[in-house]
């Protein structure tokens, strides 16, 4: 059974949901419990298969987990984008410039602290270029670094792989802990947001598979486009492309015979399934390396990554809450968007029990991608 990727995936989802139901005060893991169950089962399955010298099954599991990861990401992001598309024009009209500022504040904060740690730690500075991208869970950042300094790909990739899990955990836990630490009343925040913005009521009963597929097709194509801004080159990637496609087409509503406005309950079910599969697959494919490569260097770099991620989130929260006066529901999404964190978005939706979170995420994410590319490029050229 431990060589069956479907058994492991749904076992991870089952155990993760079970773990996520336990509460400590106001805190619970919710859907994010599947990340932890995935880490454990991924480590356990690979360890036992290695004892049997069953290398072919390990390779099959790796390939399967990667495909689960991509497919679940498509489901989650497309559903989130279509839900958020109903209200995105009101959100951008009211808070637009603040989201752009948030994106650059968060990515700049992570860059400054990563560069500082890289200089004082005594470790290879190129490890910290990877740690920066990992802590802010940014694949485009990693790609930019590898392209800029190709002679140090191993060091950069190692830093990214070490920094990714602490980065994911930092965002997920922050979404549950910030309201507790800063005594935010989520119910009151929802009421305030509803009084400020008139959200569209869900009167739609249909779900159009053709339209849903079209959103994904357009998004994948958009993600492949290389955006050239002089010395800065980047692409939105599959995640960014599908998000933009879903937000844009969903806000249009209907194009010819294709109707992009769909039933919210159905979209929420797809979103939840995508999130559970996504978090489980991240854990399953990272579990063995996370636990087996623990040594003094990796633990220290993971600690640095955790501090970088938490610092970026805290700066984002302070700027967004006390300077921009953003509502927590929208701000939580903007922080996740600034961290380019899909798992964080899922945690924010779960913790706040509100899909409006996705509007802040969708408005911030593209600018955070650009910020990561710019600051990673600068980081790479400084050394």
UniProtKB/TrEMBL annotation:
Keywords: Cell membrane, Membrane, Transmembrane, Transmembrane helix, Transport. InterPro entries: AAE_transporter, YidE_YbjL. The chain crosses the membrane at residues 6-22, 29-50, 65-84, 96-117, 164-186, 207-225, 231-249, 270-288, 300-319, 326-349, 361-382. GO terms for cellular component: plasma membrane. Its main location: membrane. It comes from the Bacteria. It is found in: Cell membrane. Belongs to the AAE transporter (TC 2.A.81) family. This is Putative permease. It comes from Marinitoga piezophila (strain DSM 14283 / JCM 11233 / KA3).
């Amino acid at each position: 059974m431990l060589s069956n990727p479907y058994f492991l995936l749904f076992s991870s989802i089952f155990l993760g949901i079970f773990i996520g139901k336990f509460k400590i005060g106001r805190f619970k893991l919710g859907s994010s419990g599947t990340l932890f169950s995935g880490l454990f089962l991924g480590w356990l399955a690979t360890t036992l298969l290695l004892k049997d010298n069953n290398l072919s099954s390990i390779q099959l599991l790796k390939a399967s987990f990667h495909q689960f990861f991509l497919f679940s990401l498509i489901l989650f992001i497309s559903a989130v984008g279509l839900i958020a598309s109903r209200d995105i024009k009101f959100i951008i009209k009211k808070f637009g410039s603040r989201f752009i500022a948030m994106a650059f504040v968060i990515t700049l904060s992570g860059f400054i602290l990563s560069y500082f740690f890289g200089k004082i730690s005594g470790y290879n500075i190129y490890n910290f270029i990877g740690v920066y991208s990992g802590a802010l869970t940014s694949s485009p950042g990693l790609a930019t670094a590898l392209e800029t300094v190709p002679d140090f790909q191993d060091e950069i990739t190692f830093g990214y792989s070490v920094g990714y899990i602490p980065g994911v955990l930092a965002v997920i836990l922050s979404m549950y802990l910030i309201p507790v630490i800063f005594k935010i009343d989520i119910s009151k925040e929802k009421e305030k947001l509803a009084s400020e913005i008139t959200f569209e009521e869900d009167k739609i009963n249909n779900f159009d598979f053709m339209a849903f597929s079209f959103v994904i097709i357009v998004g994948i194509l958009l993600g492949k486009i290389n955006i050239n801004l002089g010395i800065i080159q980047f692409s939105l990637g599959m995640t960014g492309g599908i998000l933009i496609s879903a937000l844009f087409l969903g806000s249009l509503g209907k194009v010819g015979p294709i109707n992009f406005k769909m039933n919210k309950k159905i979209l929420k079910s797809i979103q939840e399934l995508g999130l559970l599969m996504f978090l489980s697959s991240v854990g399953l494919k990272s579990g063995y390396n996370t636990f087996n490569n623990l040594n003094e260097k990796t633990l220290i770099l993971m600690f640095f990554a955790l501090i970088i991620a938490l610092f970026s989130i805290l700066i984002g929260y302070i700027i967004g809450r006390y300077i921009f006066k953003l509502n927590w529901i929208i701000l939580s999404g903007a922080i996740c968007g600034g961290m380019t964190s899909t798992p964080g978005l899922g945690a924010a939706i779960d913790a706040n029990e509100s899909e409006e979170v996705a509007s802040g995420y969708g408005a911030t994410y593209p600018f955070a991608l650009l910020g990561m590319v710019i600051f990673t490029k600068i980081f790479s050229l400084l050394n």
